[in-house]
Specification:
Layout: H1 3-17, H2 29-41, E1 45-46, E2 49-50, H3 51-55, H4 61-75, H5 81-91, H6 99-107, H7 112-115
Helix pairs in contact: 2-6, 4-5
Length: 121
Amino acid sequence: MHFPRVLLALALSLPLAACAPDAWRPDSPYDAFLAQVQNKCWNLDIGGREINSLLNDQGDAATGAYFLDLTSRYFNGRISRENYVEALSTSYNTRPDSPGIRCVLEQMPSDPQRLAPLIKQ
């Protein structure tokens, strides 16, 4: 019987389901957006954490993973700009108009939903 294999496949697929909406697709518009954030904002910080380390999950992996998940939700239209800024500033204990947050916002395409349609669940 293949029951153990089914359980293993299910167990391995659950973490992927919880990931950011397009985190599994290579060369997505979201990846291009993150590359642009990396290029333009890499040395700026959000609450004392360099954007470079947040993008690469260096240091505290939980804060980097949170940043990526939150940024994906904003990029894909699941949360508003105001909610995104508030969540970043609260979670990372920084000002909403900090240079790091402003830089990330400046990299956002004018119409990200056209590039990456909202994935409905």
